[in-house]
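lol so apparently i was supposed to do this last week
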Amino acid sequence: MPGALTTRRRRVRVRGTVQGVGFRPFVYRHAVALRLAGFVRNDTEGVLIEAQGPEAALAELCRVLRESPPPLARVETVEATTIPTQAAPGGFRIIGSTGAGVPAVPVSVDTATCDACLAEVDDPADRRYGYPFTSCTDCGPRYTIVTAVPYDRPATTMAGFTMCERCRAEYEDPADRRFHAQPNACPACGPTLRLVDPTGAWRAEGPGALDMAVEALTSGLVLALKGIGGYHLAADATDPVAVAELRRRKARDDKPFAVMAASVEHARRLCHLTPAAAALLASARRPIVLAPRRADATVADGVAPGLAELGIFLPYSALHHLLLARAGRPLVMTSGNLSDDPIAHVDGDALARLGPLVDAVVLHDRPIHIRCDDSVVRSTGDRLQVLRRSRGYAPEPMRLPGRARRQVLAVGAELKNTVSVATGTMLVPSHHIGDLEHLGAYRAFLQAAEHLCHLTGVEPDVVAHDLHPEYLSTKYALDSGRDTLAVQHHHAHVASCLVDHGHTGTVLGVAFDGLGLGSDGSLWGGEFLVADLRAFERVGHLAPVGLPGGIAAIREPWRMAVAWARAALGAERAQAVGAALDGRTDQVLAVLEHGDPPETTSAGRLFDAVAAVLGIRLRVTYEGQAAVELEALAAPVAPGDAPLYPVGLATSGGVLVLDPAPLVAAVIEEVARGTPAATVAAGFHRGLGAGVAAAAADLAGARGIDTVALSGGVFQNVRLTAAVEDALAARGVRVLLHRDVPPNDGGISVGQAAIAALAGS
Ligand code: ZN
Ligand code: ZN
Ligand code: FE
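anyway here it is w/ zinc ion bound
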């Protein structure tokens, strides 16, 4: 190659997730091996390299940066410019961070303990033998311990730990696996494990604390356990008494618990795992994976009552590995909170809130800066769908389909809240924050919004929010003193699905969920929208029905059964249906007849109604419970064997109305006839799926649209989704389903951010 030996100097700018992932030592090792002079450093735009040497060596360095960066890095761009050579360039060195300018690069995600670290933890001859906080450049906490950028030890919650000589030597040796590993620590200088009683009194520390924790768990006690992003409540998953006790103390009636298994092999004894699910389970992200439960799974029935799936995950810290290996059985590991409060992550608060619920608390002295719940991913067939995008995913950026015209903070919905920022071509969703109706969650929301803006250097030009004026996130936006943009809830749902696919065209979006405020002031939730990332038009919806009793109608599905029975078969039959479910049917009917209740087109409420008619769920204790149980009920019936119940399709005022009344009537008649509940549940799913597909195909076809996007929490229902998808595919329509962005309200901020960032473009 001519000129390959000519000496040049290049300035190389690397953008993406390149801090806190071992990027500088990686560059150092390659530069030294290629005999290049110069330096590498972190700055607020990413990593900056200046390298001087033969043309061929410089080209090789850039190739490595692009094609085989370190495992945790996500390189977006590598830009090299030639600059004047220096007369005495010296060797290659790593230089300290500069904090000036605008931060634009989020730190990396929290990453599960790597194999090299685990080998040390298991090696009696190693100085980190049995040490619960072992980590290195390739693994360990990141997002949850970072307090500022650039990412460096003083800007983490490890700032208070002074490295011992041996740790410092590793940290400073470019050839070492722990070179510039910010959480680097050992038993001599790092965090210490402690076990305290529920009042906070010291019981044991170090290896003694681990012994006591294992002893407690294997004798049926309940522990609070400080992890990476917060506290868990832990108990023996195979012990029905321990699990029941955990439910009682946590005041959690039915919502399933996640189970941690020691390895993929152990997880296979609990669930049926596809190769993709097994790989995800063992990946560095370590989410909770929802997978079909095995009939012979040895976990107590109280872990996931009434459900066909189990949420399982693998150890992601050295502490988890030690506990699971020693306990020799799967452990329930559920968020450390009472009922639906936010997960505890600060020690004093954790003791106050969790102490009364547990027999002992296992904690340590490394602070958690940002609370981060476990992520949840569903595995069905060969498909994976993120339902909660949090630890191991946040703050990984997604690509904005287009360039942001302004910097955006999007503040999300009220339930399952997340926030997102958009800048340049990047959209960064936060971790899961929770239900803002809880004061603690609202505080976490404020902290998350500020922290995410800080990490990404976003100074919002506009704050995007939901149309609903009563959401605390909306109030925050309106009080922010910045420009605001109200985004309709279901438009945000559909937009979030488009972001997930990088889709910039127009789609027919089907947004089915619980409730969201519509542009006409009514309560939407079964919507057909012609939409893109800029605008939408409501072209169809489910037939509206009264919502008797407001909030009570959400908590008590039997009320929706009365409302839908009345819509389908009249008040007299509704009276008979309701009387079998609850003694207050007459009051509900009176409200529907004369009380002028608000109307809703909600698909979620339709599922509630059918679950109640079938007698499986008259009151819910968590969002979506009736729908989840209705789907589980249908499981024994193959989709093709289900009866096909009819729906009504009509057009009124140019808008298509999908009327579930015939479907509900069929369900009521079938129940009266004594048809098995599983068959009826399957028939409902099949009928609704066929109706949705027919409506979507008609609406799309009439407008020359070839793509349908399915969004909203109702499309977490695998059976319904498959019914719609199969019917649309048979008509040659392309279907977009959620993958990396949650279809539920956890994705709302993503859709809001994209719409606000691209508005006017
Ligand atoms: Zn490691
Ligand atoms: Zn040390
Ligand atoms: Fe929603």
